[in-house]
Protein: Phosphodiesterase
Organism: Petrolisthes cinctipes
Amino acid sequence: MAKHLLHLAEQVASTGENLNIADSLEVEKGSSGNVRSMLAMPIRNRNFQIIGVAKIINKLNCQPFDENDEQLFEAFTIFCGLGINNTMMYNELEKAMARQKVAIEVLSYHATASNEEIQGLQREVVPEAIKWNLGSLTFDDFSLTQDQMVLAAVRMFSDLRLTSRFKIEYKTLLRWLITVKRNYRNVPYHNWRHAFNVAHNMFGMLKTCNLLGVFEDMEILAMFVGCLCHDLDHRGTNNSFQEKTGSALALLYGTQNTMEQHHFNHAVMILNSEGHNIFSNLSSAQYARVMNVLKQSILATDLTVYFQVRMEFFSLANEGDFDMTQKEHRELLRSLLMTGCDIAASTKPWDIQFKVAKLVTSEFFDQGDLEKTKLKITPPALMDRDRKHELPLLQMRWIKDICLPLFEGLTKVVPKLAPMRDGALRNMAKWSKLAATSQENNGTTTDILEHCHSLERGPSIDPPPEAPPKIPDG
Ligand SMILES: [Zn+2]
């Protein structure tokens, strides 16, 4: 372009003023000599910033550009602006997508099972359930190593007849389990051990309480997988924390079942990763059903769901109207069994219950610290390190208001679950005694201090809501 024309374009770009030159002599100055008239206008983006200049020269009828031309040309520059803007956005979007793809590739390489790990476990013999006491409802949550838990999960898949019934290939199952394990974070409580223990509770309940005949095989598969996946990628902070901090998870999923939706989506992502689909031999109808029950099962572990459904269940159980042959009743039972597995630490022998309470409290205190420092708010008592002397009382209330009614209700429908109800009663009495001792001594007895000091930093249970719903009699 001739220098003079370039200069004129620069002038439009810097002033933002339209330029309509009808004086051919002026234009011709410095140009190649055949420019008779010119109309130049700025091109603007959506923020009204100038991103270019559009120019037309030499009107066909040899007349100067008039007002009508200016209006038409202005409309054209607006379309130019939109076009350029969209192209730039598309380029940005393409780059962002490529960036995301690379990040997912890198992450999935590090977050999925390595061949060495799979081969290592493939060589191991999977022990019988009895060797690790897997058939017992009082199984010790801390008795197995991280890898032994993977093998124990394989044993449970097999003893529930899930591997044979759904033709789950052994190597795929190992790969999936190792990847699930890796996708739990190293937080005090909501980690792989908790996920395994919840799955074990489901196994124990199904096996010892004759529930295998109650549910369809697909429901059992979805519930068991749901237990293993129900807290995937938990960050040690609860739903209310996501809401209070406006976290990316809250933005993505909203404030209803925030973490649980994330756990489910993470489970789907793992299933969709290459070589991880343990459901690959299901028919499409079976697949749809399993995914549906899987989602219900994982969302059921949000205690707010428990509070929504428990009154209906309790009233059916209390009136003796619960009917295992009814689909809706079974659905309710599935939901409450998921909660029961999740909070079953409250039913375990005291030393296990106490250890778990320490871990839960450690995680809660960490969240409480974040609330104090980042949000400048006073955390709930359960999460407040400065109120650790209240722990026995809070634990006692947790069992009394949340856990015990559940296990009492479940026992009415499934009498063989009575040992879990009795275990919760025993633990409640222990915490109550500790709370009384603490009160008598103003929270400073050696015993309480000993217990509570060990809770300095310490279980995957969201705290009960400020005012728990009314508990039904019995
Ligand atoms: Zn959990």
User: Anything to note?
Assistant: The longest helix spans residues 67-111.
